[in-house]
Amino acid sequence: MKIFSRLYRQVMMWAVHRHAPVYLSMTSFVESIFWPVPVDVMLAPMALAKPERAWRYAAMATVFSVLGAAFGYLLGYALWEPLVEPFINAMGYQDKMQVAQQWFSEWGVWVIFIASFTPIPYKVFTVTAGLLQMAFLPFILISLIGRGLRFFLVAGLMVWGGVRMERKLIQYIDLLGWLCVAAAVVAYLLLRH
Q: Structural domain of residue 137, as residue ranges?
């Protein structure tokens, strides 16, 4: 099934849309709070479509992601009981929050760097940092470093790979898409216990 190649063509059309930077900024902000789709899904095609703007896009994604992280922190800090906890319970994320709290107790501030740079759901850790009343300035600085490294790496890979990378990506996009789906299912099955 060629689902992912059709999706890729659609995403590339969105990437050159005149409002794409606004969409990237909004996605970066909400992804740090609750949005399940990673920013990279939008950043990569935008950097590939307009490599001369790749660094600007990476900077926008970083700034708006950290602003969203600050908002997520505020939600965890000030609105846990009336707003966040009922949402966590409704979504069945109690186990994820417990894991996040455990990681905070084991690794402290470094868990923010790990969550901001890797595919681990960053949003869980932004809200948890607020709930646990982590020092705000280190939270912001580490988020800025981790998110910046991640988004500038994505943009850099797209600039460096350019047209060659796009040709290879198009050639294998459906296989890669199904491998990602399989990996997500396996990760879900392993982490739900």
A: 3-191
138, containing H or E segment: helix 136-191
Number of domains composing the chain: 1
- Which DSSP symbol is given to 38? -
Residue 138 C-beta-side C-alpha neighbours within 13 Å: 11
pLDDT in tens, 14-69: 777 889 899 899 989 998 988 777 888 888 888 988 899 999 999 999 999 999 99
- CA of 128: how far to CAs of 10, 11, 57, 103, 185, in Å? 35, 32, 28, 10, 25
For the entire predicted model, the pTM comes to 0.79
Residue 108: is it exposed, middle or buried by C-beta count within 10 angstroms (0-12/13-18/19+)? exposed
Q: What are the helix (H) ranges across 32-135?
A: 40-49, 54-78, 85-91, 94-107, 110-117, 122-131
DSSP state of 52: G
Reported as type and span, the H/E element at residue 121 is: none
| Max Cα–Cα distance, the chain, nearest Å | 51
